[in-house]
Structure formats: structure tokens, C-alpha cells
Amino acid sequence: MNTLDNISLILVIIGALNWGCIGLFGLDVVGFLFGGQMAVASRIIYSLVGLAGLWSITLLFKDKVPASSH
């Protein structure tokens, strides 16, 4: 995995945890921390998480290199 893949994976995990908090507790952590859902900072984070999700689709189609048998 390259750096962009790792960053995307981290952002997707953040998004999943945020959705989990919304589902379980009714709390939008990103919105809470950055001034509400419509705040510029929140919208930037939501957009980055969405783009990371789109990028992560490509991870499904990358060739897997088998582990070395050493």
C-alpha cells in the first residue's frame, strides 16, 4: 500500500467511526468538534472522507502480492 492508500484508509475509518457514533449515540463527532455540520471545516472533512471512500474502491482491484515464504 502506498501513502495515498494509507491516508484514504485512515479517513474511511474516521468516517466509519463518526457514522457509528451517529447511529449509536446520535452524536456527529465531526460536526461537534468543528462547529456543526454546515461549518466550513466540517464540510471539508466530510468531503475528504467521501473522496477517501471513492479512492478506497480502487483498493479492491489492486493486485495482491502473496507473502514471502521465507
Structural class by sheet pairing and helices: mainly alpha
* Largest β-sheet summary: none
Task: Output the radius of gyration.
Answer: 15 Å
Q: Please mark out the parts with pLDDT under 50 across 5 or more consecutive residues, or reply none.
A: none
Total strand segments: 0
Q: How far is the first residue's CA from the last residue's CA?
A: 21 Å
Order of helices and strands: HHH
* Proportion of residues in helical segments: 55-70%
Principal-axis shape: elongated
Arithmetic mean of pLDDT: 92
Strand content: under 5%
Number of helices: 3
Protein architecture, described:
Keywords: Membrane, Transmembrane, Transmembrane helix. By secondary structure, the protein is mainly α. It has a domain at 26-59. 66% of the residues lie in helices and 0% in strands. The protein has 3 helices and no strands. The chain has helices at 3-25, 29-33, 40-57. The mean pLDDT is 92.
Question: What is the gist of this entry?
Answer:
The chain is built from three helices and no strands. The protein has 70 residues and is mainly α. It has a domain at 26-59.
